[in-house]
Design brief:
Metallo-beta-lactamase, Chain A; 25% helix; globular; 5-stranded mixed beta sheet; 6-stranded mixed beta sheet; 13 strands; alpha+beta
């Protein structure tokens, strides 16, 4: 099986909507379709792949705002995030009015996910890790076979997710990165919610918030 990926920045917040697909089967998953649904559909068409499901890392507008519209348009199930983010998904329309994402619709996923679950993405099994702190129900999806992790807004190149929300928890976020992500291995590549990705090893060594010198 040949795992392929593409990152499509969407919404005014330039959130990385990720498309992962099996090149042989041409079946794809859409991770965090925050908005710009027309662009996401056009990208799928251009790649010649058929989407099977939508996966959400967490409930913020820039990650989940387009999920309901995309699910309705393509007839897709929505899986994730953790049930702890229900309040965020129930407030997507209100978030959309604040951030100018008019297509945002409140959402109840077809399946809540939790640590210990596995989800099929592009013909491979991805483990589900609960990594709270940025939001209470934030999830990370990782394939040990493919050596890749979808980390949402938990970890960035040289930074970590914001925790300055009423529900944020910086201690929980740092603990999740150090106890759950770094032990996966230095060679794990990560795709994050904003900006360029990187490797867990580089962040373990040099990230000023959670690295060895922090």
């Amino acid at each position: 099986m040949s795992l392929k990926g593409a990152v499509l920045p969407v919404t005014p917040l330039q959130q990385n909507c990720t498309l992962l697909w099996d090149e042989a089967a041409k079946r794809a998953s859409v991770i965090d379709p925050g908005g710009d649904v027309d662009r996401i559909v056009a990208a799928l068409d251009e790649l010649g792949v058929v989407a099977e499901r939508i996966l959400l890392t967490h409930g913020h507008i820039d990650h989940a705002g387009g999920a309901a519209a995309l699910a309705k348009r393509l007839g897709l199930p929505v899986w994730g995030p953790g049930v702890e983010d229900r309040f965020l998904l129930e407030g997507l329309e209100a978030q959309g009015r604040v951030y100018g994402i008019a297509e945002a619709r409140n959402l109840v996923p077809d399946r809540w996910l939790a640590e210990g679950d596995t989800v099929p993405i592009a013909g491979r099994d991805f483990a589900v890790l609960h990594c709270p702190g940025h939001t209470p129900g934030h999830l990370v999806y990782v394939s040990r076979e493919a050596r890749v992790a979808l980390v949402g807004d938990v970890l960035f190149r040289g930074s970590i997710g914001r925790t300055d929300f009423p529900y944020g928890d910086s201690a929980a976020l740092i603990e999740a990165i150090r106890a759950k992500l770094f032990p996966l291995g230095d060679d794990i590549a990560f795709i994050c919610g904003h900006g360029p990705g990187g490797s867990l090893g580089e962040e373990r060594r040099s990230n000023p918030f959670v690295g060895e010198q922090a």
